[in-house]
Amino acid sequence: METFSASKLGELPAVANAILEKAGSFRLFAFYGEMGAGKTTLILEMLKIMGVQDGSSPTYSIVNEYQTKTGEPVYHFDFYRINSLEEAYDIGYETYFFSGHHCFVEWPEKIAELIPNDAVKIILKVRDEGREILLELPESW
Q1: Which of 4, 20, 66, 87 could be joined to 52 by an S-S link, Cβ 3.0–4.6 Å?
Q2: Which domains does the chain have, with CATH numbers?
Q3: How many CA atoms lie within 13 A of 19 on its CB side?
Q4: Which of 58, 77, 74 is nearest to 66 (CA)?
Q5: How do residues 67-124 score in pLDDT, each as one tens digit?
Q6: Single pTM value for the model
Q7: Are 102 and 29 in contact (CB under 8 A)?
Q8: Closest to 16 in 3D by CA, of 141, 139, 140, 131
Q9: Partners of 29 in beta bridges
């Protein structure tokens, strides 16, 4: 597990870039952290690096689809408001998760049984001095 820290918002682009570089060919990212820990903010920084111009939180839509500067689709999920696994099945989560495209998942603990073993785990912790960001790459790394 690798640890990053960000004491101010201006440090997040470097952290986002490092995470994307270290993840290499892995495409599914599961973001863990309490409400307000910065999951969406970090994802938006990662999207910017990928060339996505207009990212936003999918809190009410569950999933947003974006396009990178090269036209590749990227999927951003927020499962905070779902109440059952059936809702994830209803949106066709497997079509996205196994598409080979980047997927950023907030609140993966709500669908823990559906998160593949090769997901990159990112855990955000709020500290007095800012955010601590833990990166855990899948075993197959």
Answers
A1: 66
A2: 2-136 (3.40.50.300)
A3: 34
A4: 74
A5: 998 999 999 999 999 999 999 999 999 999 999 999 999 999 999 999 999 999 999 9
A6: 0.89
A7: yes
A8: 131
A9: 104, 120
